Amino acid sequence: MTAPATLNTGNRAPHHGPAAGEGPRPGLVAVIEGPQADESRQWSLPHHERAATTARDVTRHTLRAWGLDDDCVDRTLLVVSELVTNAVEHALPPVTLHLEMPENDAVVSVAVDDGGASQEPGDWVASCAPDEHGRGSLIVTALASDHGVTPGPGHATHWAELPIAA
After folding, report:
1. What's the mean per-residue pLDDT of the chain?
2. Which residues are 156's β-sheet partners?
3. What CATH number does the domain located at 39-163 have?
4. CB atoms closer than 10 angstroms to residue 38
5. Could you tell me where the DSSP H helices lie in the chain?
6. Is the entire prediction scored with pTM above 0.85?
7. Each residue of 4-44: pLDDT tens digit?
8. Cβ(88)–Cβ(48) under 8 Å?
9. What is the pLDDT, as a whole number, of residue 135?
10. 31 with 62: CB under 8 angstroms?
11. Is residue 7 within 8 Å of residue 32, measured between CB atoms?
12. How far apart are CA 46 and CA 105, in angstroms?
């Protein structure tokens, strides 16, 4: 993985992202420039309810900079949102988002590192009925060509690979 960079929106804002001149959102430690072969990016995300919004913003900007089409961007945004939300609601900090587009590959790789399972549910999960959550893995399964979890001592990585062409 490459070193963290800072979200740089330049002179124009990404679709639904920060306005031009607004600069990076708080909590980001990530400079996104044009695509290159074997491209990868990572961002440390805040461990709070806005993390998924921040993750969608940087993902949208990155995938568009990489020249991916709207369908691929939209599918990837859904998966990123699910993985980051699960990290905030069910795991301990820190939360780190990784995006990778390997050279000559037909997939976008998404990974979210967290600090391992939390013994307490997040605020949103604790505040809603059981039938109001729990569909994230179905969404990831439907959109990803492959996905899984790689556990480690004191952390876990939840990952998915999405085909660039649907």
Report:
1. 77
2. 114, 151
3. 3.30.565.10
4. 11
5. 51-65, 70-90, 123-127, 136-143
6. no
7. 333 332 322 222 333 333 333 444 444 344 445 468 999 99
8. yes
9. 78
10. no
11. yes
12. 30
